[in-house]
Amino acid sequence: MGKGKAKSKAKIKQKQKTARKSKNVVKKQKPVLRKQSLSKGSPQKPSYSIVLGQINTLVGDVHENARKVIAVIEKAKEQGAQLVVFPELTLTSCPPKDLLLRPDFVDVNMQRFIEVVNACKGISCVFGFVNKANKNLYNAIAFVKDQKILGIQNKVHLISADGFDERRYFSEGSAPDIVMAGNMRLGIVISYSAEQELIVQGLVQKGIDLLVIVAASPYSLDKGTDAEISGLAKKYQTPIVYCNSVGAQDNLIFEGGSFAVDKNGLVISRARKFTEELLFVDANKAGSSFTPSKNQTSELYAALTLGLRDYFMKSGHTKTVVGISGGLDSAVTATLAVHALGKENVTGLLLPSKMTSKESIADAKKICGNLGITWKSINIDPIVLPTARTVGMQYDKKNISLTEQNIQSRVRSQIIMSYANNTNALVLATTNKTDVATGYFTLYGECTGALAPLADLWKTQVILLAQFLNALAKQKQKSNVIPDSILKKQPTAELRPGQKDSDDLPPYDVLDKLLSLYVVHKKDIHEIVKLGFDAEMTRRIAFMVMRNEFKRQQIPLPLRVSTCSFGPSWRYPIVSGWRG
User: Fold this and answer.
1) Residue 472, SS3?
2) Which of 30, 211, 236, 462 is most solvent-facing, going by the fewest CB within 10 Å?
3) How far apart are CA 26 and CA 525, in angstroms?
């Protein structure tokens, strides 16, 4: 071991020892009972200024993450803030997954931890890191005041969600103690769920003036964090500041939306969602109102464009190729790509066959023209015909088999992937969640790509998103970006003459409701039938869901926007006899 590394480890051990001593001092302080609310005419509490550092970090880039943290600390000091708060696992970003099994990764995280502590001269700070102590790892936060570690809190309730099993990596911590920040007694909680209410209750009983919650909580459409924390503040008559991560990592999207509420649950201040922001808050100020947002389609759009942008930027790519069929899914995918990456970075490939209608070709050209993207048309028949004949088929338009239909889809995939390889681009798959659930797609066909932006959206949600994108376009150019002819046409893969999705599936407004009950809410067939759905149709759709798991485990990552998405958090067996 080199001298520099030995000195660094010695420094870390000394800091941890100091933290343990400080923690013990806090434990010995006599609990202070919460003061009653001020009566009329009582002097107002002095302001307590906090900065919530809602920053976009990159998993594994510990050096750059620490640099960002230090820059925010300096900015907070310039603005006269007394405390700056960062999200959960600030230094490593979230979720670091099996990087945590690498001792060198954890050690670098501890070295940057010391740098951040040293940057806290003249200010208090709460930030997340991976704590290494007694050969165990902890998801932890540090409370630092003027370069002194006054407390380290290890996460108590570990979770297994979103493909990140915290128990695989971390040990559980013990119940947190209060920490002193000037005259303010703080309780700090890492993330928040209903299981942690007892911890909050214990902190309140000790007499805290402010509850600080740091989180890395992924976005989902039906998430109710604002209302939950507002209710918590009102119940325990305690102001709360909530600092959440922002940015995307793999298929997870963190929306930010950090905020502060007073003891009555009224919002003091709120950061924007889906963007980096430093939120300046006076924790002793009274809030004015509580109005949780819910323009779901607008949030969905913001989440997906952030997810796309961060996936490309953080993986070092700029360009994408999208197969444009003239259908709705590819039109919406291409539009999102343009909004996230810029039209100069999006190429559309039109890949017609003798099964493709003139209308679809016209619609495909129209969407490319409306978006202003480069496009190229390549007829796939010269490749499909010899491929079909090689396996003993004729590729006859009047009598085309399922195998020949799949050949068309796979030939398109081969061309798109080759074009992307040649231009150093990534392919975006255009499959939606309804197709993924039922297996209504060609494996290694239209589901091929690096990322599937629509794979966590039911078809009916894709339609709503298309309407939203058109409304956005009308604000700027007074015309739809997605042509009405695409919105009004019957959905079809056009792999055989006259084909429509409705030949094989129920109408999407019925199908999506049924799938939501079966996939998301885990209703059994009998329960669904009692709600008015046809029994034979319900059994057939349930069977399609269960038998197509092998396909789902081979598709690109879906950008997660729901609490039940296919991908890392969906863990059904591939081979199963269950048909219920």
Assistant:
1) helix
2) 30
3) 56
The model's pTM is 0.90
Looking at 54-182, list the stretches that DSSP marks H as alpha helix, in order from N- to C-terminal side. Answer: 62-78, 103-119, 166-169
Report which of 534, 481, 527, 448 is spatially closest to residue 366, judged by C-alpha positions: 481
pLDDT of residue 470 exceeding 50, the answer is yes
Residues written for the chain: 580
Q: Determine the Cα–Cα distance for residues 386 and 404; give it in Å rounded to an integer.
A: 11
Backbone angles phi, psi at 551, to 5 degrees: -70, -45
Under a CB-based contact definition with an 8 Å cutoff, are residues 202 and 175 in contact?
yes
Selection from 431, 418, 420 nearest residue 459 by Cα? 431
Burial environment of residue 85 by CB neighbours within 10 A (0 to 12, 13 to 18, 19 or more): buried
Are 280 and 248 within 8 A, CB to CB?
A: no
Q: First CA to last CA across the chain, in angstroms?
A: 59
Q: Which residue has the tokens 């950061």?
A: 271
Paired tokens of 566: 């296919």
Give residue 14's pLDDT band: very low, low, confident or very high (50, 70, 90). Answer: low
| Residue 485, SS3 per DSSP | helix
Q: How far apart are CA 259 and CA 279, in angstroms?
A: 8
Q: Cis omega before residue 95 (within 30°)?
A: yes
User: Both tokens of residue 406?
Assistant: 């799949």
Q: Tokens 């085309």 belong to which residue?
A: 400
HEC string of 224-255 equals CHHHHHHHHHHHHCCCEEEEECEEEECCEEEE
Q: Residue 51 corresponds to which tokens in the numbers above?
A: 């900065």
How far is CA 412 from each of CA 278, 291, 329, 479, rounded to the nearest angstrom?
Answer: 46, 47, 16, 31
CA angle 446, 452, 458 (to 5 degrees): 90
Across all residues in the chain, what is the average pLDDT? Answer: 91
How much of the chain exceeds pLDDT 90, in percent?
A: 79
SS3 sequence of 308-377: HHHHHHHHCCCCEEEECCCCHHHHHHHHHHHHHHCHHHEEEEECCCCCCCHHHHHHHHHHHHHHCCEEEE
Task: Assign 183 a pLDDT band (cuts: 50, 70, 90).
Answer: confident
Task: Say if strands 246-249 and 252-255 run parallel, antiparallel, or are unpaired.
Answer: antiparallel
Is the model's pLDDT at 285 over the cut of 80?
A: yes
Integer CA distances (angstroms), 521 to 195, 504, 524, 552, in order: 21, 24, 9, 19
Residue/partner pairs of 491-495 with CB below 8 Å, 24 or more apart: 491/327, 491/328, 491/459, 492/327, 493/325, 493/327, 493/405, 493/409, 493/446, 494/325, 494/353, 494/355, 494/356, 494/357, 494/360, 495/355, 495/400, 495/405, 495/406, 495/408, 495/409
Lowest mean pLDDT among 112-116, 191-195, 412-416, 470-474: 191-195
Task: Give the whole-angstrom CA distance, residue 280 versus residue 330.
Answer: 41
- DSSP assignment, residue 516? I
Count Cβ neighbours within 10 Å for each residue of 38-61 and write b for 16 or more, e otherwise. eeeeeeebeebbbbbbbbbbbbbe
The answer to whether 210 and 22 are in contact (CB under 8 A) is: no
355 in Cβ contact with 497 (< 8 Å): yes
Contact between 250 and 219 (Cβ < 8 Å): no
